[in-house]
Amino acid sequence: MSATIQEVRPLGVIGEIRARFPDEALVEQATADGIPTVWVPRARLQAALRLLKHGLPQPYRMLYDLTAVDERLRQHRAGLPPADFTVVYHLISFERNSDIRVKVALHEPDLQLPSIVSLWLNADWYEREVWDLFGIRFDGHPNLQRIMMPRTWQGHPLRKDHYARATEAERLVMDQARVDREQEALRIKPEEWGMKTADEDHDYMILNLGPNHPSVHGVFRVMLQLDGEEIVQAVPDIGYHHRGAEKMGERQSWHSYIPYTDRIDYLGGVMNNLPYLMAIERMAGIEVPARAQTIRVMMSEFFRITSHLLFYGTYAQDVGSMSPVFYMFVDRQKAYDVIEAVTGFRMHPAWFRIGGVAADLPQGWERLVREFLDWMPKRLKDYEKMALRNTILKRRSIGIGQYSTEEAIEWGVTGPGLRATGLAWDYRKARPYSGYENFDFEIPTAVNGDVYDRCVVRVEEIRQSLRIIEQCLNHMPSGDYKARHPLATPPRKDRTMEDIETLIHHFLSVSWGPVIPAGECTMTVEATKGLNSYYLTSDGGTMSYRTRIRTPSYPHLQMIPYISRGMMVPDLIAIIASIDFVMADVDR
After folding, report:
1. Which of 187, 452, 462, 516 is the most exposed place for a label (fewest CB within 10 A)?
2. Contact 479, 461 (CB under 8 A)
3. Terminal CA-to-CA distance of the chain, rounded, Å?
């Protein structure tokens, strides 16, 4: 971990906390990312979080993430409070343009904390996830049930003593008794979902939308309590796509986990690699060459375009327009042709590497990129006539699923969904990474924060991505496509045959992966659907001790009940379409 990084981290907010709690034993922690990190006693947790949200001049209004770490096997904990488990609260202040981590140490068997759902509404799902995967209880939570795993699951999978592979578990036997048990667990009991089938004067209908329904864009279920066609209650049910991505991140070497990141937001491609690799590079002290940074930006923006085009077409389809989706798939394939020519793959290239990218740009890349840049703008004009100006589409979407900037922040909404409310906040501008500070582009915003505006913002983002790609084309730096740092993986092969030491280093770096210095780091990118972060903990080994993936789709779906009550079922379909999510991004 770089000493320089530790020395420059901002400490102002921790000083403000100390001033309010002068008698408490607060422990500051230096991290590779420079985010102020403070350990607070469990008894002071709610008071400290309330201070950060309501008691400071420039408050930390967004609960960005809430997760936990099983500390029991961790070796490098010098200077940290003793703990068997740690719960981590990550907050964002837009006024300060800064973050803070608040940590609480817990010891077995007393794994309990007070719930903060009354302080942040979006803490609901995060606390359920920590209970489900770590077994930490949150007193006062309104519905502390499993959220990722089936209700019949035994154990808590992200604990270090829980098996990671099926070969480590007992042989699965599905006898008739177990089949009956599992089927009974799937039975719909409306009262468990906070619903009722009858009132004093009339009955309600309970409708199961999904988990296999074309409008829910994946294996996702929404339980509806309906009064006629009016939605009284809508409760999302997730976890059907959960694959243990974070657990896998703690069993793979730093380098071999890169392809797994592509499959989180499986429409984001290499953009998923970026926050993961930036966190590793920050902990390892690797400086990525300018050419590699620009290539990363260009390919990330190509994937932003392909993702937004898919959203655009399916959104139009969900609100009644069939034609646009076919045209947009044609243009999406044109973008994939460029991606394939550069990386060798289409949807999941896993092409970024520790220290740069897998290879230099191929001959002729400029012509392919230029042809796409010449083609796409006029197509966007055609789509505007077909879709955005379409009277039916506008009537189905304007004023539907509306929320304000304050409500978006309360629920943890980021990306186009936040900018549609009028807040011009884009991570590429607010905290530039990978050289984004060198690019000229605008932050598209809207006003009403409704279904229609969420589409308008994404359409304009396609145009801004084209601007960024054109600047990459016109100003591509020369130089290396990968750092010549000893921990860059795999290392450049241009000197591997010169001496045996270099050859051995190359062999070990590829087979075992690099040894990353002990430390913690969160790195964030403005992904296709909002802010995507990787919070990595290294214990000084060849693989991550804790891999936390904060995805934008997860909090966005949690908002569905809030913005759909009183709407009609067709309105819910439009709301779901406008959120732009993929279930792998939600369930991980």
Report:
1. 187
2. no
3. 28
